[in-house]
Structures are given as C-alpha cells and as structure tokens.
Description:
Blueprint: H1 3-9, E1 14-21, E2 27-36, E3 43-53, H2 56-64, H3 73-98, E4 107-124, E5 127-135, H4 138-145, E6 149-151, H5 155-159, H6 169-176, E7 183-188, E8 191-197, E9 207-213, H7 215-226, H8 235-238, H9 244-251, H10 254-257, H11 266-269, H12 271-280, H13 285-307, E10 316-320, H14 327-337, E11 342-344, H15 355-369, H16 376-379, E12 389-391
Amino acid sequence: MHPALHRLLGRDTRVVAGLMSGTSLDGVDAAVVRLAGSGRGLRVETLAFAGVPYDAELRDLLRANTEAATSSVRDLALLHVRLAHLFADAVEAALAKAGLPGDALDLVGSHGQTVHHLPAPTLVAGAEVRATFQIGDPATLAARLGAPVVADFRAADVAHGGQGAPLVPYLDDALFASDAETRGLLNLGGIANLTVLPRGGTPADAYAFDTGPANMVLDALTERLFGERFDRDGARTATGRPDETLLARLLSDPFFVAPPPKSTGREAFGAAFVERLVAEGPAAPHDLLATAAALTARSVADAYRRHVAPRHPLDRLVASGGGVHNRALMALLAEAFAPVPVETTAAYGLDPDAKEAVLFAVLAHEWANGVPTGLPAVTGADRSVLLGSLTLP
Length: 393
C-alpha cells in the first residue's frame, strides 16, 4: 500500500485542506480544518482560512472558457494546471496562517473550477449522456503539496443519474440539523441554493436544490457597469429600484418554476443572461443592480413558497457565502421571509465565507472514512455514492 494512503486511512482525526472556486470566478478559498468523526458525529475545528483572488487576466480567461462559443481545448488544458498551482498557493497561505508546516496536512479536498455542467441527458454522437466538468489538476496539486487529493466530487452522482449538485447539504445536515426547529440553509455563492432540514429528521429527510443566480450576475453587472469586482456591502444596489416588469418576465423562466431536484450554473445565468439584463433592463446602472438583487431574493422566496413551505415551513433561515456581505440583498431576503428570522452561519461559529471550503475538506475526510456523501433526495441520483476520486502524491 502507498505509505500516504496507509497514513490517511489509518486515523480518525485528520488535518484537511478544503478548496472551493465557485461560479462567480472571483478566486479560490482555502480552509485548513481539523476533522474527526463522521456524519452528525462530525467534529470540525477551522484552523485557518485564506482567499486568493484571481487577477483580471485569469478571470477573463476562465470566463471565456466557461462559454461554449469562446472556449478552447488548448486554454482548458493549460488552465487545468495553472489553477492547480494557484490552489496550492492558497493551501500554503492557509497553512501559514494556521502556523502549520506542510507535512501536517493529511489530505486535500478540491472542488475545482466548474467550466461546464450538463446534468440533464444531452445527445452526443448518437447517445444521451450527462456531464459535469471541473478543472484544477489534482495530480499537480498533490505533487505541489505532497499530500493525497480527493477531487471530482460531482461526477459519481451524475453517473448515477443525479444532478451532481448541490453538495453542501451533507455539511448542512451534519452541523445544523435540529430536533427543535426546521431550518433552511441558504448558500449565496455564484448560484443560490437552499437546503431544508426538517425538525427531528434524519439525514435522508434533508433535501436541497439550486434556486437561481446570486453573486454571479451581481458581480458581472458590477464589473461591467462600474469597473469593480463586486458591489461592496451592496451600497450601489441599495440606491436602485428594481424593474418590476422585467422581474416578472425573468421569474417566468422554466428553471424557476421547475420542481426539484434541479441545479444550474453559468450555462443558464452567464454572459448571455447578463447581456439580456442589460438589453431589457432599466437604463440606470443602480436600478439594474437592484433588479438583479431582487431576482435573487424573489427566486429564493418563490422556490420556498412553491416547493418547501407546504411541507416544511421554516423556523429559521441561515445564510452563508459571499452574498451575506451584500446588505441590500440580505435586507430583501429578510423582507421576503418575514417573520422567519434570517441570520448567518457566523451565529453558529462558522465563517460564512469559509463554509464551502470547509465542505470540501469534510467530503474528502468522509471519502477517507469510506462514507457515501451523495444524497439522492437532494440530487435525484439512484443511490447514495462515495463522492470524489483520490490522487496520491
């Protein structure tokens, strides 16, 4: 047996680095976490968190290669390795913050960067297949860090007929399930997704789905209209007024009305969607941002009313992800969900910015435990599967 594999499998407590690069294409987040136990018995101690932003050149190249019309096989091959080096930089930065040497790391869990996500059956060369594609070469990452890497977390679920997303419900259930109240866990990343944890339920009772765009569209509009990477604190959004007529048209899109399980990404809410907003939306830039923020808040609230409230009315909504820093968006959500209280994971000791990076540390840790982390009730897969593939250094 490879010595790294023997060391990995032969312990209960591990120091694991988790990596997340989302659909907003703003950078990579790394969390170094000490983990022990499994499932609802999981014990999580976040030792350090570091974010490494993508520079403009890399961000533009990634954006081009997430669009079918502008992607290049050559660029994708090179980005696959380039991102792995940047991911390694982020892990090293987090280790330094934690005051840990590189050899303290037992394992790395890397989500990679999604460049295309096609979970619905799609005809290719005479046969229908489902596909999801993340880049960030795990072999390069393992070589740089000298630690085993678990990556490619979505593929096994898609292979079993699932959406391959969202993945965060496993962590939500492990850390936030309650016998006293029904909780909704809302992740506001590039895409918004909602996890529902029924009061007193088992892990099999949890369900989740993507509700629509969040930071992906807001950030793209802010960059286009104001030349800034994001709307800090939602200050520009707060001064605008949403275009109600456009909102009604957007919310009639089949994705928003479709029942779960469902997932989405840049294929539906990328460059073409932003162009549509600019072409059909209000002339005032602040009003356009306000319209995009209202779309996020209302699509989450509408999804809750359609697909959750009739069965499991929420006692509490707990948000995480970069969107929690947009005060205008959080105010819209608080208004839409009132009287249900809306708070963030910070109230429970988990940094809202670090949550998804912690998730991939946990999924890698559970891979090493041999625990299937796919949730069929969430993704629609035909069974619960072990998520991720191992690469040894």
